[in-house]
Amino acid sequence: MDDEIRIFLDEIECLAGPGRVPSLLHVENTLTAGYAWVLRLEHRLAEVGADAVDETDSGAWTMMSRMALADRELSRLRRALTSLRDRRARLIGSGLTYDRGSASPTAA
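RESULT FIELD:
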C-alpha cells in the first residue's frame, strides 16, 4: 500500500473513531478527499486490467498482483469512508451544525 494512502486511511480511522469530536468541516473535507481516492483507485484498477490483456504469461502474474493490491486498497478505503460517513451522521444527529456564513460548527 502506498504510504500516502496509508497515512490518509489512518486519518480517516482517527476521525471516525471514538474519543474526540472532530469538526464537521474536517470530516466533510476528508470524505470528499476520500471519494477522490476511490476514483483514482478505480482508475488504477481499470488501467492495470487493460494492461493485463496485453501481457505475456509471466507479466500477467505481476499485473494480477497489482490488481489484487489496488482492490484491497479500494476495499479498505470504502470501509473507512463508510465508517466516517456514519460518524458524520452521528455528529449531525447530536446537534452539531454550522453557523450561517461560518465554517465553524456549533451545537444546536
